[in-house]
């Protein structure tokens, strides 16, 4: 079965192929090429493994035929919830080879997220681990498996969860007669931070994903001597493909998997593995800059630090090179496609104050007003985009697509931005109802729905408000039922019991008797956000 791409627009496939953006290869075939070219070079390092390109290729083949013997085939979705370990990379390539589609979810996701994802993606298998950073995944995996009969296989990467298949036992040897995927097929489904209460899945093609990896690796100056360290979750588009894991592999470089975001582990790995490239969100950068004051690891191998996912304060940006000794690259990225980056040789003013240029000359950017009319060049507007690697629609979501995609195939980012006279992007704000907490995108409505389910809550509105550590903190406003009082502790207990992941818990809880409203009677979230400022209450 092939997953069809929703599109309002005739994608100029031949043009993309002729211009060299799209190779007529799947990601599984790309790995074969890399293995031929870089064979004995080390591809992936984690705390237990050092896999060469040849090892990775062989392991992916063996696992692909094992999956195939289990009955997993082209077009099947497989939910993958793995930490930054070599198994993550082996699994995705095994699935790419089969044309089965990994649905990449974060280790931090909890039952409410996983449940909603399964209901939408209908995976045939759920692959996760036993425990990671103190959380026991087994019971959640079992409950999800019992709830959804279409999940035929529960698999654990370390074989320690009773009642699951161990990944290491899923190996085939005989060449299987595969219905092989094609280069334009959906390779993987990424999860959108979204603005709705239900998850939206982002289908990325083999060919466009491979293109982004190559193009961003080039803009980062990666080559076979590069060592990329994955600190943010591997399941995130930034870490996986911008250039991340796939960009390093397509350059013949080495990928080092860092299991936590703590400076202790990361700084030690930079020193021991001579890491040259890595990527962080701004809130983590702040911690790294602080830690550098007392942590004396040798970071001299680091050439380029990418920062993206949330606005970066220019004064913080200016500290990167003096404190960490490497160059800075600002990245504006979306899992839906468009990536803009500054170049290492841009003047400092561009690197500190802009998010750079799109990675492809054929990325078509528009900046529009509330009526979808183009604003004059250089003025602020909502950023719309289409091009060789931006989606034309979410997976099986006609309603969301009619809002998110224009009639002529542009994706609405929900970001307010402008282009400087030199052609660099500057993100100026956001119109989507989303909170960007620590670089994690949280749909306000999703948290509001969880809050409204509490018996002491009559109505709820969730807003983001500036926060020195988190970028934005999540502030929940409630109209309590019958004038009662709800404490944060009570709320946390409730959310935890309902399987809401920790990063979606409100940082602040405020009570109000009636909503401030806009001139057309909608809840005035801007006002609520202002009222959430520190010490207001
Ligand atoms: C302000 N807001 C930004 C930036 C993203 C690389 C880097 C990031 C992502 C990512 C990614 C921003 N300044 N520099 O996928 O490959 C906000 C915008 C955007 C949304 C996308 C990558 N960089 N943002 O963050 O899909 O609001 O991708 O629309 O998670 O993050 O979020 P996401």
From TrEMBL:
Q: Hey, which family's this protein in?
A: Belongs to the ATP-dependent AMP-binding enzyme family.
Q: What is its EC number?
A: 6.3.2.-
For this entry, the protein name equals Yersiniabactin salicyl-AMP ligase
Report the Gene3D superfamilies cross-referenced here.
3.30.300.30, 3.40.50.980, Luciferase, Domain 3
This chain's source organism reads Desulfovibrio intestinalis
- Keyword annotations of the record: Ligase
Which top EC class applies here?
ligase
Looking up SUPFAM superfamilies in the UniProt record yields: Acetyl-CoA synthetase-like
Outline the extent of the AMP-binding enzyme C-terminal domain.
446-522
Query: Does the keyword Ligase feature in the UniProt annotation?
Result: yes
List, for all copies, the residue spans of the domain called AMP-dependent synthetase/ligase: 32-395
One Gene Ontology term of the biological-process aspect is: fatty acid metabolic process
User: What residue ranges are annotated as transmembrane?
Assistant: none
Q: Which InterPro entries match?
A: AMP-bd_C, AMP-bd_C_sf, AMP-binding_CS, AMP-dep_synth/lig_dom
According to the UniProt entry, its GO molecular function terms are: medium-chain fatty acid-CoA ligase activity
Keyword Ligase appears in the UniProt entry: yes
- Describe which pathway this protein belongs to, using the record's wording: Siderophore biosynthesis
């Amino acid at each position: 079965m092939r997953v069809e791409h929703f599109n309002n627009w005739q994608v100029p496939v031949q043009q993309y192929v002729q211009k060299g953006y799209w190779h007529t290869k799947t990601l599984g075939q790309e790995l074969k090429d890399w293995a031929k070219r870089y064979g004995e070079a080390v591809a992936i390092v984690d705390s237990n493994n050092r896999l060469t390109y040849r090892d990775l290729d062989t392991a992916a083949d063996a696992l692909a035929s094992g999956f195939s013997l289990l009955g997993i085939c082209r077009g099947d979705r497989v939910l993958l919830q793995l930490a930054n370990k070599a198994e993550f990379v082996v699994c995705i390539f095994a699935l790419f080879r089969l044309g089965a589609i990994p649905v990449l979810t974060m280790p931090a996701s909890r039952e409410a997220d996983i449940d909603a994802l399964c209901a939408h993606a209908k995976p045939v298998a759920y692959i996760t681990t036993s425990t990671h950073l103190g959380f026991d995944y087994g019971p959640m995996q079992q409950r999800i498996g019992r709830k959804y009969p279409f999940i035929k296989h529960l698999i654990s990467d370390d074989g320690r969860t009773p009642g699951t298949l161990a990944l290491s036992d899923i190996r085939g040897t005989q060449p299987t007669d595969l219905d092989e995927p094609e280069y334009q097929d959906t390779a993987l489904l990424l999860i959108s931070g979204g603005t709705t209460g239900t998850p939206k899945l982002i289908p990325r093609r083999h060919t466009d994903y491979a293109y982004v990896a190559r193009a961003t690796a080039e803009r980062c100056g990666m080559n076979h001597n590069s060592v990329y360290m994955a600190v943010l979750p591997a399941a995130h588009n930034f870490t996986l493909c911008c250039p991340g894991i796939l960009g390093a592999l397509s350059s013949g470089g080495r990928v080092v998997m860092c299991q936590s975001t703590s400076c202790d582990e990361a700084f030690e790995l930079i020193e021991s593995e001579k890491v040259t490239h890595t990527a962080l969100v701004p809130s983590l950068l702040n911690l790294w800059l602080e830690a550098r004051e007392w942590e004396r690891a040798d970071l001299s191998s680091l050439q380029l630090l990418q920062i993206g996912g949330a606005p970066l304060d220019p004064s913080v940006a200016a500290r990167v090179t003096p404190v960490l000794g490497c160059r800075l690259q600002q990245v504006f990225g979306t899992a839906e496609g468009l990536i803009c980056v500054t170049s290492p040789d841009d003047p400092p003013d561009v690197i500190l104050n802009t998010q750079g240029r799109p990675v492809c000359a054929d990325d078509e950017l528009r900046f529009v007003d509330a009526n979808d009319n183009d604003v004059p060049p250089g003025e602020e507007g909502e950023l719309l985009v289409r091009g060789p690697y931006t989606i034309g629609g979410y997976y099986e979501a006609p309603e969301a697509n009619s809002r998110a995609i224009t009639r002529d195939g542009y994706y609405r980012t929900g970001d307010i931005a402008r282009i400087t006279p030199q052609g660099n992007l500057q993100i100026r704000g956001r119109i989507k109802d989303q909170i960007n907490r620590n670089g994690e995108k949280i749909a306000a409505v999703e948290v509001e729905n969880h809050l409204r389910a509490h018996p002491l809550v009559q109505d709820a509105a969730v807003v983001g408000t500036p926060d020195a550590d988190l970028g934005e903190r999540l502030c929940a406003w409630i109209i309590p039922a019958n004038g009662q009082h709800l404490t944060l502790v009570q709320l946390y207990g409730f959310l935890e019991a309902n399987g809401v992941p920790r990063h979606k818990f409100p940082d602040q809880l405020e009570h109000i008797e009636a909503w401030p409203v806009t001139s057309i009677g909608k809840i005035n979230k801007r006002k609520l956000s202002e009222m959430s400022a520190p010490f207001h209450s």
